[in-house]
Specification:
The structure holds two protein chains of two kinds. Chain A is mainly alpha-helical. In chain A, about 75% of the residues lie in helices and about 0% in strands. Chain A has helices at about 5-10, 15-30, 35-50, 55-80, 90-100, 100-135, 140-155, 160-175, 195, 200-220, 235-245, 250-265, 270-285, 295-320, 325-335, 350-385, 390-405, 410-430, 435-460, 465, 470-500; strands spanning about 180, 185-190. In chain A, helix 3 (about 35-50) packs antiparallel against helix 4 and helix 6 packs across helix 11 (about 235-245). In chain B, strands 1, 2, 3, 4, 5, 6, 7, 8, 9 and 10 form a ten-stranded mixed sheet that branches. In chain B, helix 3 (about 45-65) packs across helix 10 and helix 7 (about 165-180) packs across helix 12. The N and C termini of chain B lie far apart (about 70 Å). The model of chain B is unreliable at about 5-30 (pLDDT under 50). Classes of the chains: A mainly alpha, B alpha/beta. Chains A and B meet through helix 3, helix 6, strand 1, helix 15 and helix 19 of A and helix 3, strand 2, helix 4, strand 6 and helix 8 of B.
Chain lengths: ~500, ~325
C-alpha cells in the first residue's frame, strides 16, 4: 500500500543529495525577484536528462519547493515578492520587518512553508487520482466566476479605501489587455510598438510595482532600511513555534486551500496565497490587525503557496494536465524522458517512479526546515546589515537581471521600470500596488473564461444560461456575493449588537 | 611554460569568441566550434520546447558542442520572431519557427514582423492535426461525428489551440470539405484545449497526434491529417482515406537572422538534416507522435510559397484574415 517500500529508494545518498541541492538552489533563485520557480526549473531541466525519471522528478520538485519558499525573503525584507506566489506575503511580512520582527517573520514563513508543503505532498500521496478530477470540473464559465471571486479580494486588501482599490484593479485589468489578445490573436493597445506586443508580463509588473517604489523610498529617505535590534536573537524558533500552535487551524485551512488551488490548472501559488490570506483575515478575531504585521497573515500565505507544489502535481501526474506553471515544465521534461502520465503511474507498475518522487518530496520539504532557517538568517542579516549605498544598487541590479530573464526581453525591463515609477507616484496618491497586480493576474483568466464560455454557450443557443447553471457555478457565484457583502453584514451585526447594549461578548465574527 | 601560454591564449580566444568579438571567419572552419543558442519563441514545457529538447542531445552527439535552449515567449511567438533579425547572424543564433504562425500572424495585424523577415533554413517536423474525443464519447468513428454535425448545425463544439493556428485552419477546412458548420473554441495552447475536452466542456478537440500519444488511455483519435497512417496508431484512419482531402498540422523548423551569410545558412541546414537522419532521434520523435519531414534550405522557398497560398485561402475561409 502507498508504495511504502519506495521510502528506501527516496533516501539513497544520491537522491538525498539531489533534494538538498535542489532545495538550496531553489531557495536562492526564488529569493531573487524575477527568477520564478518556473524559470529555476526550466534552467535546470537539461541536468535531469541524464538521470533516471524518479531522480529527475525529485530534483525538479525540490527546486520548486525551495523556490516557492525563497520568494518570501524578498517579500518580507524588501516588500517585493521574489516570486508571484509571495505577493500576499508582503502584506504582513514587510510591516513585521519594519517594526523589527523580520527575523521572526522569516522563521514563521519557513515553518508555514514546511507545513503547507507536507499537506500538499500528503494529498498527492493519498488522494491523487480522485482529486485530479476536480481539475476537470472547472471549465471556462467556472474560471470566469473564479476570477470575479478573486477580484472581490480587493475589498479585503484595501480596507477603508475600497474606491481606490477598485480604481487600481480596473487599471490592472486594463494593463492585462495590452498585447496580443489571448483568444482572437489580435494585437491590442500596442500602438504599433514592438515593446508592448508581448503584453505586460505579470512578473515584470510585480517587480516594477512593488520593488521600484521601495528602492525610490530607500534613496529618498535618510533613515535606515529596517530597524536594527541591538543583540542577536537567534532564529526566534520557539516564538515562531508558539505562533504556529495558536494558529494551527489557520495553517491547516490555508494548506488545504493551497492544495485545492494548485489542482486547478490556470490558478497557481499567487492566487492560492491571496485566497488563503483573505480567508485567514475573515476567520480571524482581529481582522483589523491584518496588513499591519499580523503573523497569521504570513502563515496563511506561505503555507498555501507551498501546498500548491503537491497539489499542482496531482493533475500533472494523473491527467497530464499541469496544475501550475512550473508543472508545465516538469511535464515537458517527463515527456522527453519518455514517461507517460496517467493513473497507472500510481498503480503497482508505475509506482516506482511516482512513490519514490512523493517520498522524496516529503524529505525535501523537511530538509527545507534547517536549510530555510539558515539561509533565512543569512538573508535577514545581510539585508538588515548592509548599508543602503550597497543594498540599493545590488537590489536594483537584481531586479533588472531578473526582469530580463523572464523571457530574455529588454521590453520587459522597460515596462518594469515604467510601471515602477508610475507605481511610486500612485502609491503617494493612496493607490496600493496589490489591487493593480490582482487585476493584471485575473484579467486574462476572466477574459478567456468569458469569451470561451460565451462561444460554447452560443453553440447550444443559451449563452446567458450557461453562465448561471450548474451547482459549481452557483456555488462560486454565492461565494462571490458573500465575499462582497460580508463587510456590510458585519457592520450591520455590530450595529445591531451595539443597539441592544450587549457588549459583554467580544465580536469575533 | 609553453603549454601554459598556449592554454592562456586558447582561453582568451574562447572568451573572445563566445563574446562574439572575434571575426566569424576565424571560427567558421569548423561549425559549430562553440555552443549554439537556440531560441524558442514560446514558453518552456510546450511542444516546441519538447522537440527542441529532443534535438538537444543529438546536436551534442554530432558536434560535441552544446545546444543551449532559451525562451522568448509572448504574443503567440510574435515577440521572439520580431526580434530574430536583431540577433547576430553568425550561425550561433538560431530560432524555432512554426507554421502556420509565421504566415498567418502577420496577416492578422501588425505583430512586429513580416513573413519575409524570417529566414527559415530547415523544416524538420510536423505534428499532424487530428480529431480527438473522450474515450466515453458516443462518437465512435469519424462518420458518427460528421452525422451529428450535419443534424445539429453549429452545435458540435471543438476546442483547439488558439486563433489562426493549425487547429483553427483545420477546422475551417473540415467544415468546408464535409459541408458542415461546427463551432471552434480557441484555447490557450494544446494543454488547455485538451483539458476542456477531458472536462466535457466541448464535444471534441482539434488536437494533434502527439496529444493522442501522450494520453492514449483517455482519448480516441477519430482521424489524422497525414498522407499515410501514423505508425504509432495503425488503427486510426487518415482523413484522406475517408475522402476528406486534409494533410497538415503544425510545422516546425529553424530560422536564422537575416544577416547570416549564405554559406552559414547551408551549414545550419545540413546540421539539422543530420540530426533528422539519426535513427535513434527518428524513433524518439515518432514514439511521441511527431512526423519527421526534410525540407532543407534549398527547398524551403518553394515549400513556403506553396504553404502561403494554402494558408491564405484557409485563413480567409476561417475569417481570421481579411
Amino acid at each position: 500500500m502507498l508504495g511504502l517500500e519506495y521510502v528506501v529508494d527516496a533516501v539513497t545518498p544520491f537522491r538525498l543529495m539531489l533534494s538538498l541541492a535542489g532545495v538550496v538552489a531553489g531557495t536562492v533563485l526564488g529569493a531573487i525577484p524575477g527568477l520564478t520557480a518556473t524559470m529555476a526549473i526550466a534552467v535546470l531541466v537539461p541536468l535531469t536528462f541524464s538521470m533516471d525519471p524518479a531522480s529527475a522528478l525529485l530534483l525538479m520538485g525540490a527546486i520548486y519547493t525551495g523556490a516557492i519558499y525563497g520568494g518570501a525573503y524578498a517579500a518580507i525584507l524588501l516588500n517585493t515578492p521574489g516570486t508571484p506566489s509571495a505577493i500576499a506575503t508582503t502584506f504582513d511580512g514587510y510591516p513585521m520587518a519594519k517594526r523589527g520582527d523580520g527575523d521572526l517573520a522569516v522563521t514563521l514563513a519557513c515553518l508555514a512553508s514546511v507545513v503547507g508543503g507536507l499537506v500538499g505532498a500528503a494529498a498527492l500521496l493519498l488522494l491523487a487520482p480522485p482529486l485530479a478530477h476536480v481539475a476537470l470540473a472547472f471549465g471556462p464559465v467556472q474560471y470566469f466566476w473564479l476570477a470575479i471571486f478573486g477580484l472581490t479580494l480587493i475589498s479585503a486588501i484595501s480596507e477603508g479605501q475600497l474606491i481606490k482599490g477598485l480604481i487600481g484593479a480596473s487599471f490592472g485589468l486594463l494593463l492585462s489587455c495590452v498585447g496580443v489578445a489571448p483568444i482572437s490573436g489580435a494585437p491590442r493597445f500596442t500602438f504599433d510598438s514592438a515593446t508592448l506586443l508581448g503584453g505586460i508580463n505579470v512578473v515584470s509588473g510585480l517587480i516594477g510595482l512593488y520593488c521600484i517604489p521601495v528602492l525610490i523610498d530607500l534613496v529618498a529617505r535618510p533613515e535606515r532600511h529596517l530597524e536594527v535590534t541591538g543583540e542577536s536573537r537567534g532564529f526566534r524558533l520557539r516564538e515562531a513555534f508558539g505562533l504556529c500552535c495558536t494558529g494551527k487551524f489557520n495553517l491547516l485551512r490555508s494548506s488545504v486551500l493551497g492544495t485545492l488551488t494548485g489542482i486547478l490548472p490556470g490558478a497557481g501559488g499567487s492566487i492560492a496565497s491571496l485566497v488563503s490570506y483573505s480567508e485567514a483575515r475573515r476567520a480571524s478575531r482581529h481582522p483589523e490587525r491584518f496588513g499591519k504585521g499580523e503573523p497569521n497573515g504570513i502563515q496563511a500565505t506561505e503555507s498555501a503557496n507551498n501546498a500548491t507544489v503537491g497539489g499542482g502535481m496531482i493533475p500533472t501526474l494523473v491527467l497530464g494536465i499541469p496544475g501550475t506553471p512550473p508543472d508545465a515544465v516538469i511535464l515537458g521534461a517527463l515527456l522527453v524522458q519518455g514517461i507517460h502520465t496517467g493513473p497507472e503511474l500510481f498503480s503497482s507498475a508505475g509506482g516506482a517512479i511516482v512513490y519514490t518522487f512523493i517520498y522524496g518530496l516529503f524529505i525535501a520539504t523537511l530538509l527545507m526546515l534547517p536549510i530555510g532557517l539558515l539561509i533565512g538568517r543569512y538573508a535577514f542579516r545581510s539585508i538588515v546589515g548592509f548599508p543602503k549605498a550597497v543594498l540599493v544598487p545590488v537590489v536594483a541590479f537584481m531586479t533588472i537581471i531578473g526582469t530580463y530573464a523572464i523571457r530574455n526581453s529588454v521590453a520587459d525591463v522597460v515596462i518594469m521600470i515604467g510601471l515602477g515609477i508610475m507605481g511610486w507616484g500612485l502609491d503617494r496618491l493612496g493607490f496600493k500596488p496589490s489591487p493593480i497586480v490582482l487585476g493584471l493576474i485575473l484579467g486574462p483568466i476572466a477574459e478567456q473564461g468569458f469569451v470561451q464560455g460565451w462561444m460554447i454557450g452560443s453553440a447550444t443557443g443559451h449563452p446567458v444560461v450557461a453562465f448561471f447553471s450548474g451547482p459549481l457555478t452557483i456555488g462560486i457565484i454565492a461565494l462571490t456575493l458573500f465575499s462582497l457583502l460580508y463587510p456590510l453584514l458585519i457592520k450591520r451585526l455590530r450595529k445591531a449588537r451595539k443597539g441592544t447594549g450587549d457588549e459583554s461578548k467580544p465580536s469575533h465574527l | 611554460m609553453l603549454s601554459r601560454k598556449k592554454a592562456l591564449f586558447g582561453g582568451i580566444a574562447l572568451t573572445l569568441s563566445t563574446l562574439g568579438l572575434l571575426p566569424v571567419a576565424w571560427a567558421a572552419d569548423k561549425y559549430p566550434s562553440r555552443p549554439v543558442q537556440y531560441v524558442i519563441p514560446f514558453g518552456p514545457g510546450g511542444e516546441s520546447d519538447i522537440t527542441a529538447r529532443l534535438q538537444q542531445p543529438f546536436f551534442k552527439k554530432l558536434t560535441g558542442e552544446d545546444l543551449i535552449i532559451s525562451y522568448k515567449p509572448g504574443g503567440g511567438g510574435a515577440v521572439g520572431w520580431s526580434q530574430l533579425n536583431g540577433m547576430k547572424g553568425d550561425g550561433y543564433n538560431i530560432m524555432g519557427v512554426n507554421l502556420p504562425h509565421i504566415i498567418i500572424k502577420p496577416l492578422m495585424g501588425n505583430v512586429g514582423f513580416k513573413t519575409s523577415d524570417i529566414t527559415t533554413v530547415y523544416m524538420f517536423e510536423y505534428t499532424p492535426d487530428a480529431i480527438l474525443v473522450r474515450k466515453d464519447s458516443p462518437f465512435k468513428t469519424l462518420q458518427d461525428l460528421i452525422d451529428y454535425a450535419k443534424s445539429h448545425p453549429g452545435q458540435l463544439t471543438f476546442s483547439g489551440s488558439g486563433k489562426g493556428t493549425a487547429n483553427d485552419l483545420a477546422n475551417s477546412r473540415f467544415d468546408d470539405a464535409t459541408g458542415t458548420r461546427t463551432t471552434y473554441i480557441p484555447f490557450k495552447g494544446t494543454g488547455a484545449a485538451f483539458t476542456a475536452l477531458m472536462g466535457g466542456q466541448v464535444k471534441a478537440e482539434w488536437g494533434y497526434s502527439t496529444v493522442a500519444a501522450n494520453h492514449k488511455s483517455d482519448v480516441r483519435m477519430l482521424a489524422v491529417a497525414t498522407e499515410k497512417r501514423v505508425p504509432l496508431f495503425p488503427d486510426v484512419p487518415t482523413f484522406k482515406e475517408k475522402g476528406i482531402d486534409m494533410i497538415g498540422g503544425t510545422y516546425r523548423g529553424i530560422a536564422v537572422p537575416k544577416s547570416t551569410p549564405e554559406a552559414m545558412r547551408m551549414k545550419v541546414s545540413d546540421l539539422i538534416g543530420r540530426i533528422n537522419a539519426d535513427p535513434e532521434f527518428q524513433k524518439k520523435m515518432e514514439n511521441r507522435g511527431f512526423v519527421l519531414i526534410d525540407v532543407p534550405y534549398k527547398k524551403v522557398g518553394a515549400f513556403m510559397r506553396q504553404k502561403t497560398k494554402e494558408y491564405i485561402r484557409l485563413g480567409k475561409a476561417a475569417g481570421v484574415i481579411k
